[in-house]
Amino acid sequence: MKTSLLLLICFFNLAIVAAAGTDTLKLQQHLVAITGTAQARNHQNPEALNQVAHYIAKEFGQLKGQVREQVYTVADTEYRNVILSTGPADAPRLVIGAHYDVCQDQPGADDNASGVAGLLELARLLNNHTLPYRIDFVAYTLEEPPYFRTEHMGSYIHAKSLKEEQAVVKGMISLEMIGYFKDEKKTQRYPVAPMKLFYGSRGNYIAIVQRFGNGSFGRSFLRNYKNEAVLPVKSLRAPAFVTGVDFSDHLNYWHFGFDALMITDTSFYRNANYHQPTDTIHTLDLQRMAQVVDGVYATVLNLK
After folding, report:
1. In Å, how far are 49, 141, 190 from 193, measured between CA atoms?
2. Which of 246, 273, 275, 289 could cross-link with 251 by S-S, CB 3.0 to 4.6 Å?
3. Half-sphere CA count of 161, side-chain side, radius 13 A
4. Which N-terminal residues, if any, form the signal peptide (predicted)?
């Protein structure tokens, strides 16, 4: 009887741990909804973008916190960021973001439905925790060309608003392509060939990318993430001019003086489906994608 009771308790505890982690079924649900628009969710199809924005807002709306849209106009067309803010309104804030638009006509499962699905799961997982800081979960529009590196990027609009509010920002985390992994040799490329000697040729890790001089937030996040992650974690801290280092929404937070980093599967340095019609859900590894999200979740809980 005692043995049976002990086994039952162990099973119950394991069930609690499993329930606390990222749900791959929810990730899949989000990926299907985000990639399933009739038209590609690019700047030329605002109806598709609005459909995805509505889905994100609906998912955010099931959680505690304030949901709002940050609407702005480009070329007489309205675009919107979708934001869920949780925690004390006057506390320092952490920004976690991912862009939901795509480049041209492609489903964009890894780029960047994977990041948005991860964002939605992080919001759900963190929603039951009382933290001493505010979190802004932000789904950005217009990250992709032709608006990349312009003031029309959704992340530029959001970062600028924080600067104008004189908000105290702990740091920003950009989730940029977190679903593609390969274990075979020669599946990982680099902007500089000798990097392969240090990072290896297998695309089986998640990367945390920062620029030189990024501040204490990035160092603390990286240290804690390495402690929490199940996946191999590799860090790149380099000048912003190194190709790929600033290839996402974190670059706009740098522009306004905020610490920011990118979590990525390294994009086109690994995934040949980048900006192609072949960037579909079927190419993604949901188990390892969930492990990426779990690592961020545990790290955020331990932020000081």
Report:
1. 38, 33, 6
2. 246
3. 16
4. 1-20
Question: Which pTM does this prediction carry?
Answer: 0.92
Instruction: Say if residues 173 and 96 touch (Cβ distance below 8 Å).
Output: yes
Q: Is 294 exposed, middle or buried (0-12, 13-18, 19+ CB in 10 A)?
A: buried
| Alpha-carbon span 205 to 216, nearest angstrom | 23
Cα–Cα dist 101/140, whole Å: 8
| Cα(206)–Cα(265) distance, integer angstroms | 5
Helix (H, G, I), strand (E, B) or coil at 134: strand
- Domain boundary assignment for the chain: 24-301
Residues 6+ apart with CB under 8 A from 114: 31, 175, 177, 178, 179, 180, 284, 289
Q: Which one-letter amino acid corresponds to residue 57?
A: A
Report whether 173 contacts 179 (CB < 8 A): no
The C-alpha atoms of residue 135 and residue 85 are separated, in whole angstroms, by 6
Question: In angstroms, rounded to a whole number, what is the distance separating the alpha carbons of residues 221 and 258?
Answer: 14
Write the CA distances from 18 to 11, 91, 296, integer angstroms: 10, 31, 16
Label residue 164 exposed, middle or buried (CB < 10 Å: 0-12, 13-18, 19+).
exposed
Considering the domain delimited by 24-301, tell me its CATH architecture.
Answer: 3-Layer(aba) Sandwich (3.40)
Give 241-260 pLDDT, tens digit per residue.
888 899 999 999 999 999 99
The CA-to-CA distance between both ends of the chain, in Å, stands at 44
